């Protein structure tokens, strides 16, 4: 996985732009041409700083972060529908080289199919917390030359980075009793409610047959040889 590719780089590319410049972005540390100043409030002396910026001393932000932090823009969803007057930080996102799509729980079937056959370069940033915004600079960009069944793929869930593999996710979607990694558990929680495929009940070797108890009165022979009514 390439360390030089940032989520803001991929988001800028999906919007037809590119991050470049001689400085580093205040938020994500990407290349910055010092065109847009960041809107982060200055730190208060002698108080613990909760700043999440990667380069807090820098005054400007890159094209990708500027595009992300715009308000009242038109966003497109994974199912190709769209909505006006939205803010990117209020949504979950699927970002590739060619486009950036908002994800909703209604798109879970499309998202499942996409995650099982992902492109070589993508960003998955999921948000379920109604209060905390989705921070692009805390997301991770996947840039993998060859994706195999056991290749770790990164994503963020409420700004916390986790990972999954195609094999683990596919196994968990097919079998509810399969062992799940922490990342797969997070993905399945986003897919909830999820109905597992119906499976035929087959009698396994050595398994005793099920005893069908009758609803009528039965006689239970006690160890003393007496009969009790139930």
Number of separate domains: 1
Strand percentage, roughly?
Answer: 15-25%
**Major sheet size, sense and barrel closure:** 6 strands, mixed
- Computed Rg: 26 Å
Count of helix runs: 5
Principal-axes geometry comes out as: globular
Q: Give the SSE order as H and E letters.
A: HEEEEHEEEEHEEEEHHEE
User: What percent of the residues sit in helical stretches (DSSP H or I)?
Assistant: 10-25%
Instruction: Give the termini distance in whole angstroms.
Output: 68 Å
Runs with pLDDT <50, length 5+?
220-224
Structural classification: alpha+beta
What's the average pLDDT?
A: 85
Number of strands: 14
List keywords for this structure.
alpha+beta; globular; 5 helices; single chain; 230 residues; six-stranded mixed β-sheet; 14 strands
What does this structure look like?
The chain is of the alpha+beta class. The chain has one domain (7-191). Helix content is 18%, strand content 21%. It has 5 helices and 14 strands. The strands form 5 sheets. Strands 7, 8, 9, 10, 11 and 12 form a 6-stranded mixed sheet that branches. A two-stranded antiparallel sheet has the order 1-2. Strands 3-4 form a two-stranded antiparallel ribbon.
Topology:
Elements: H1 7-14, E1 23-24, E2 31-32, E3 36-37, E4 60-61, H2 63-68, E5 73-76, E6 82-86, E7 92-95, E8 100-103, H3 108-116, E9 121-126, E10 142-143, E11 153-157, E12 160-164, H4 166-174, H5 182-191, E13 219-221, E14 227-229
């Amino acid at each position: 996985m390439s360390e030089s590719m940032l989520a803001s780089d991929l988001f800028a590319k999906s919007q037809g732009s590119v991050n470049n410049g001689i400085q580093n972005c205040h938020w994500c540390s990407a290349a910055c041409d010092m065109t847009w100043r960041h809107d982060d409030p200055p730190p208060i002396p002698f108080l613990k700083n909760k700043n999440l910026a990667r380069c807090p001393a820098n005054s400007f932000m890159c094209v990708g972060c500027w595009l992300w932090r715009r308000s009242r823009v038109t966003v497109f969803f994974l199912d190709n529908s769209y909505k006006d007057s939205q803010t990117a930080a209020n949504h979950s996102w699927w970002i590739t080289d060619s486009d950036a799509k908002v994800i909703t729980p209604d798109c879970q079937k499309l998202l499942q199919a996409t995650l099982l056959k992902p492109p070589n370069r993508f960003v998955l940033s999921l948000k379920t917390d109604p209060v905390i915004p989705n921070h692009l600079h805390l997301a991770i960009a996947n840039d993998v030359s060859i994706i195999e069944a056991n290749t770790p793929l990164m994503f963020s869930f409420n700004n916390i980075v986790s990972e999954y593999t195609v094999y683990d996710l596919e196994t968990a979607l097919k079998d509810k009793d399969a062992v799940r990694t922490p990342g797969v558990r997070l993905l399945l929680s986003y897919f909830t409610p999820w109905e597992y495929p119906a499976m035929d009940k087959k009698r396994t070797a050595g398994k005793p047959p099920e005893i069908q108890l009758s609803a009528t009165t039965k006689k239970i022979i006690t160890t003393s040889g007496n009969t009790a009514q139930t």
